[in-house]
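Weekend entry, working from home. Most of the wet-lab plans are on hold until the incubator is repaired, so I used the time to fold the two sequences that have been sitting in the queue since the last round of cloning. Logging both here for the record. First:
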Amino acid sequence: MSQNKAIEELLKKLAEGAQLNEQQQKQMKDYKFWKTQPVPDLNEKITEEGPIEQKTVADISIQPYPLLKEFEWADLDLNNVEDRDEVFKLLYENYVEDADSTFRFKYSSEFLDWALKPPGYKKEWHVGVRVKASGRLIGFIAGTPADLQVRSKPVKAVEINFICVHKKLRSKRLAPILIKEVTRRVNLQGIFQALYTAGVVLPSPVSVARYNHRPINWGKLHDVGFSYLPDNVTKTQMIAKYTLRNEGKLKNLRRAELKDFDQVFTLLTKFQSKYELIQDFTRDELKHWLFGDNTLSNDKKVVHTFVVEENDRITDFFSFYLLPFTILDNPAHNELGIAYLFYYASDAEFDESDSAKAQALLKKRLTDLIGEALIIAKSLGVDVFNCVSCQDNNLFLQDLKFGEGDGILNYYLFNYKSRIISGGLDDDKHVDYGNVSKVGVVML
């Protein structure tokens, strides 16, 4: 049942005097909260794109939102080791976990620095909630600068991410107040739009994409319960299916260096001009996202970027970042290496005026490039390589043996109406291999 239909059913039950269970009550509360926010209604027909509410900084309260008496707001400084460790612990124990509580994201200090401290970040946008009596951090939400282009229109915005409430306190309705408080703080800086994603359907997605997974170490994935053996196939056959070479074949591929940045910036800017939703990077922002901390050794890097250089010209680049899982209660394995495809660009289609021929050229080039990314990821201890159906990913998913995952990723714009932007899915929300997405933003 779709979320829209589910809400309609719950409303009907309430009208008939029915009592809702705990999950249904939460669903209704979430729906009621978002009905109070400047977001489009579910299934609203968008005729005019742009901001929903028009506000100025003068309209925004300088006072934080009130909390229940046992809690207090915490301004977190991620340059402070104690604060960063508290955020790490909260996210590790409470953020995202599979239904069977088998896997947890394993955040590192390097990852948090990269994800939460891009150029222009403000520590007051790293919002925490503590228990007054103990000082324990039990809630967190983060905003980071992320100006956008929506169908070529500039939108000054932030990206909202890492909203997390302690498992035992989710009945306290802290998530909505965290959202409102970070919104207030962002508004005080004259920013009134935001981009965020969620696996659940809220009012109202601007785009919908699907996760895809490419096993690299299928045997290990099977051993820990991440992958399952299909009927009438042996484990040996599955391992053989996903085996990769140890060395790539693409000539002139090398790890990116800072001297490549100008060409990479120009290449990505041109490549992404075809998408309808992109992040409008400053030079410093893109350098941060693609190169990370250059003082780190390669084995400590969070983001890995590689370029193809021919005759002193960068023709292609790709990047991916690492965010492993901790494996719980498994005597043989304690960590799962996970890579996520990040930004890439190629000049393969630039000089071809025929759109079908241009896409065919790009498909071949991207298949070669991301094939190399898989081999490099393998050398870094990655067990599975993930991506969503954004950018031009649909062109290479089948050829490189990515499997469609169960996870749906909904993209949302806060205080901005936009017509639906294709996330590379068909009407049944499965990957449409015959079409590419119009979303160029990659969310962490």
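Second, folded right after the first finished:
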Amino acid sequence: MHIRQLKAEEYDERIALSEFAFQMKMPAERIERERAHFRPEQHWGAFDEEGRLQSALILIPFECWVQGKPFRMGGIAGVATWPEARRNGCVAKLLAHSLAVMKEQKQFVSMLHPFAFPFYRKFGWELTIERKKYEVPMPLLPKRGNSTGRMERCREIETLNGIYERAASQYTGTLVRAENRWHQTVLSDSGLAAVWRNDEGTPQGYIVYEVRDRLLTVRDWAYENGEAQTALWAFIAQHDSMADRIELIVPTDDAMPFLLPDPRFKQEIVPYFMSRIVDVAGIVQSYPFVPFGKEERLKIRVRDEHAPWNDGTFELIWAADGSAEAVAAPEADFDACCDIRALTAMLLGNRRPGGLRAAGLLQGSDEAIGMLERRIPVRTPYLMDFF
């Protein structure tokens, strides 16, 4: 078996594999339309000795927000294998190869949407993104009162993205959206987009939605403050003659049930995306830890069987301002110990060190756990997109 990037002339073979693996049939016009967007350098395949494609995945270069800072991120998608090649280790080799490629490209973070969480946990990815799904009967929404500002229809990407960036940077895991992503995903389907402007005319919230069969579905929205959020909810309520209920996705820390007169509507926490630290030393050097006024040091043993450069003991050295580095330390000398999944959960999933120790996923003294607790910021993970 050998692994390489696909070639442009292998597009049809890649489509055939995806159609089989994901049990779908793409219309001929869509196949031809997407041919122009095919980026063979992003598709990696495992081939047998006769050169036949056995498995493939897509490694997409993204940026995502981590603790208010953009990080290079490798998005894994489209993982597929022909049935005759399954259980031959093709996907395992592709994932290991992808980790090496991401490390070389300084993509310290990787994210994916799993078909099965246990499968990707074996390779070091961990659940980091959960989302809250609402289904709200229209009569429960407050009607628009004397609120100021105005709503206007808008599909201007610069305006929408400005609001999105300011909102998305408050979370960990949200994508930094390039212009083509707005065109190809957010605004690609039918539906309306509208912006809320405050009294000064500054855009501070937007919504992308559609109404069909008495259901209003919010496909994408963002707001910068409570006033903008209230205005968007009031705008949704204006559709009461067209829709009986609303469906939308929000972060897990969304407080709308508390703010509504009647919070008894359907709310569901949905596990969504997994993340992985690709390079421990790289992410520590770039990560915005909490300042503490003095230098601190902690030796942590990290287990990672699929990325050997992560498997070992690191001394984390924090400066007073929160900047840090991770340097190799003697194997047997450490203050805390965990695998790459637990470390990912701490740095990218807002799972607190104390909770991980209580669950048996992190070992360490009270002093070591306390140091991790005060150095790692608290920030809700969230992702509006899919890839």
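Plan for Monday: verify the second prediction. The chain is about 30% helix and 35% strand.
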